[in-house]
Amino acid sequence: xxxxxxTGSPGSGKTTIAKILSKRLKVKVISLTxxxxxxxxxxxxxxxxxxxxxxxxxxxxxELNKLKDEKLVIVEGHLACExxxxxxxxxxxxxxxxxxxxxKEMEKRGYSKKKISDNLILEAIDYFxxxxxxxxxxxxxxxxxxxxxxxxxxxxxLKGKKIxxxxxxxxxxxxxxxxxxxxxxxxxx
Length: 189
Description:
By secondary structure, this protein is of the alpha/beta class.
């Protein structure tokens, strides 16, 4: 089975892109958020859901075993970069996005200032990309500008093209991060 993991910061477009890809390719998509809620493999800690990665991995592997006849499955969620699913032919797509746009999206979702700051810092240091590269060989970072361009890039990757916009994303986000720090839009403590 081929497996596509789509990961990235909250608000980067993972769910939207995965749904479009799923329809376009006629394949199953597993949303880690929905999967975690459905299987109840989380604990409430200070009002936040906390997931033990080993439990998530075991449960997801059982689910993927049920889908072993599928040619391709998409798994999306920010925790995808924490999983080690090496028995599959896995490609990891890391969606990157402007910090300004991420901040706007997280504010729309009602995230606390601390949660927004934490997530923006993770994005600025390329946590999802670095974590993915430490686990997988086939990792592709895409800077999200719009849905169509992002989908087109992913389809090219699936056909074997090497696309990696890590340096481009890092350059843009570094400038935005410094400005946000100067304006005190990001809290480091």
